[in-house]
Amino acid sequence: MTRVLSGIQPTGEIHLGNYVGAVQHWVLDQHVHDSFFCVVDLHALTSEQDPALLRAKTLQMATFLLAGGLDPDVCTLFVQSHVPQHTELSWLLECVASYGELRRMTQFKDKTVAGDEGSARVGLFTYPVLMAADILAYQADRVPVGDDQRQHLELCRDLAIRFNTRYGDTFVVPEAAIPPVGARIMDLQDPTQKMSKSRSSPQGKILALEAPEVITRKIMRAMTDADNEVRFDRDAKPGVSNLLELLAVAGGGTTTDLATGYSGYGALKKDVAEAVVTYLEPVRTRYAELIEAPDHVLKVLDAGADKARSTAGPNLAKARAAMGLLPGSEMG
Ligand code: AQP
Hints:
By secondary structure, the protein is mainly alpha-helical. The chain has helices at residues 16-29, 41-44, 51-67, 85-94, 99-103, 106-111, 122-136, 150-167, 212-220, 238-251, 255-259, 265-290, 294-323; strands at 3-8, 34-39, 75-79, 142-144, 175-177. The chain folds into 2 domains: 3-182 and 293-331, Rossmann fold, CATH 3.40.50; 202-289, Tyrosyl-Transfer RNA Synthetase (Orthogonal Bundle). Helix 3 packs across helix 12 (265-290). The two termini are 27 Å apart.
């Protein structure tokens, strides 16, 4: 059976881009693949976090994933830091990765102030290697992610291939599974930038658990352009194209066909708002129930971490042995 792994950071409230680009595909994948999903709290440490808030957000994110449709009877849901094999494998892979290839990662450039790289956290620089470890520790074949993770997935593949060439066949080389529609939902106020938890303004992002009237207001105020022509063209009309993409994802249809039904932006925005509100409503309702049952969520995460450790452990042992580390008696 194909193995799937993906993760999401508990860095803030989940937005429509995360849901559309990643989570809704996880929900489908879990029924056809052997699926592992994690809340990547160690990745969150690459930016400033309040410790109490990080704990709370990690639990909220896991609750959201269950509300969004992950079923612990068919997939494995866990918290990254509960599985120490990720960080140990990350070190082994850091000794395979080169400084030059990490320097090419565009997310590092995006998340640091130009000219001030010297004060950036080392973890922000090396986190793509930890992400590779997250994936390779499970011998995942398929990694469902949004388009922004394409470069990190390429790095992961390069590291797996290099490791296998240098130390013998150890890791499965994974494929990125990037959806054809909704892989890069754009910021509503700056449609040339992706919708982001940490970098979008409150008006630029739709939070998945936001009240319907707030979602509607944000969509009605989304940035478009002056000519009032509804046409799908990401380069010339990024704002309108983003709205059409949201309509396609939330309501069905193709962006080009949908565009032909509108002669102005007002009606388009109204339909997008209605479709997005309806699309998110079941998740909001289920979240409100589940957030009242944190013990249930914690139990799911404990069971998930047990399964994750027992899957990742032998793969890590294989990598350690391949690199020539002497096994200790406690290593098994
Ligand atoms: N705008 C987006 N459109 C489609 N997919 C997206 N993803 C993120 N933004 C969009 C996908 O969501 C998954 C989880 O993302 P993450 O938590 O690892 O963080 P990220 O990719 O760095 O996304 P954010 O929202 O911008 O978070 P911050 O601001 O914390 O860095 C991934 O599969 C991602 O591709």
